[in-house]
Amino acid sequence: MTEGVPNMDKKDKKDNKDLVTLEIPARPEFLGLVRAVVAAAANVESDFRDDRDEDLRLAVSEATTNAIEAHQLIGLDNRISVQAAMSDDRIEVVVRDQGPGFDPAALEAMPEPGTPERLFFENGLGIPLMRELADESDISSSSDGTTVRLVIYTRRYL
Amino acid sequence: MDLGLMIERRPPMLVLSIGGDLEMSSVPQFRDAVIDAISAGEHHLVVDLSATDFIDSTGLGALIGALKRLRSADGSLQVACAQPRLQELFKLTDLDKVFVLHQSVEEVVAAGIPNSSKRSEWL
Q1: How do residues B62-95 score in pLDDT, each as one tens digit?
Q2: Do B92 and A132 touch (CB under 8 A)?
Q3: Contact B25 A29 (CB under 8 A)
Q4: Buried-most residue among A89, A99, A117, B76 (CB within 10 A)?
């Protein structure tokens, strides 16, 4: 069992070359800071194409906006955590809040894109957009909070 | 973040140019500007996104909100946006079906106030 620990450390180092963690107050005034820090972190040692930079900034901003809204919904003062793990060809960003959580499956009930009903969802655009822009996205949510994990590659491979 | 709002009268239209970011922190300022314009009798607005640095789903939602408000006042909202990146964003969210994207404010002004919109049944 003790042998497993160093192996895991080694694996983590390989997968997560660099790690940047940011904690922000749950206020929209800090969104710009999150975008700037994550975009700068992504390009420290990797070269993200301009369009990927924009995908990253927008996807992270959407996730952080949802986190801020979740805290504001229940008047929670706790900070929101944004963690970015950089490796050669990608950045993985994890946004964690301690809000009331939601059921990601319930989002599927939204009207189809292009239908008139969809337009009444002024606030429902964020998560579909985030999923579209990120190469990988996972949302796990419970009554203790929500964690969104996003992965963006330096280039679009699709 | 700063909305970087500039307002210019181009009778019979009023142009709101956004030079900064349209997101959660600046949306209230944008919404207030639209409400003020309508109160002042300006019912035909043009939102110029030519120099906009960043817009997210909250900002797009605010544009929908402004369109609904103006439509209920028998007005119109047109968008000038030549940035390919932002045009792509309108497409991804299907909002290219709601807003006609013009290349420039000059193009909007030259075309004049739209006829009662063929898209009005959408909202």
Answers
A1: 999 999 999 999 999 999 999 999 999 999 888 8
A2: yes
A3: yes
A4: A99
Q: Coil, strand or helix: which one is A153?
A: strand
Contact flag A61-B56 (C-beta cutoff 8 Å): yes
Instruction: Return the amino acid letter for A76.
Output: L
What is the rounded CA–CA span in Å between residue A80 and residue A78?
Answer: 7
pLDDT tens per residue, range B13-44: 999 999 999 999 999 999 999 999 999 999 99
Closest CA in chain A for residue B56:
A58
* Predicted-complex ipTM score: 0.88
Q: How far is B98 from chain A (nearest CA, A)?
A: 9
Q: A119, B123: Cβ pair inside 8 Å? A: yes
Q: What is the CA radius of gyration of chain B?
A: 13
Find residue A148's DSSP bridge partners: A95, A139
Measured between beta carbons, the chain A residues lying within 8 angstroms of B58 are 65, 123, 126
Write down the pTM of the prediction.
0.87
How distant is the Cα of A6 from the closest Cα of chain B, in angstroms? 42
| CB-based contacts of A50, cutoff 8 Å, min separation 6 | none
